Amino acid sequence: MSCTLHPGISAACPLEFSYHGIVHSIIAPILYYRGLQKVSASRAAVLGYLEPVCAILLSMVFLDEMPGHNSLLGGALILCSGYMTIRSGHKGGI
């Protein structure tokens, strides 16, 4: 059984939608907040900043896309600032 979302696009109705709703609305936030309990705020922020960098890398691998110069520069700045933040934490700062 499948339901039609739009002409030409179909999905397995209630079970698949329920599965995605449970995983994305319940399980993911629980794991996120448990992780925040175990990681300091500065390191959690650095991990959050890495999300766009990972998205760019995954788009290069799976979608065969090449990022522009601004994206590469931004990714490099994010990686450098994350490294500096984590490095300063070793000196007792953060």
Strand content: 5-15%
Number of E-type strands: 2
Largest sheet: 2 strands, antiparallel
Strand order of the largest sheet: 1-2
Short account of what is shown:
The protein has 94 residues and is mainly alpha-helical. The protein is built from three helices and two strands.
List keywords for this structure.
about 90 residues, mainly alpha, 2 domains, two-stranded antiparallel sheet, 3 helices
Report on this structure:
This protein is mainly alpha-helical and 94 residues long. It has two domains: 1-38, no CATH class; 40-94, no CATH class. It has helices spanning 13-38, 41-62, 69-89; strands spanning 3-6, 9-11. A two-stranded antiparallel ribbon has the order 1-2.
Topology summary:
Layout (H helix, E strand, L loop, with lengths): L2 E4 L2 E3 L1 H26 L2 H22 L6 H21 L5
Antiparallel strand pairs: 1-2
Helix pairs in contact: 2-3
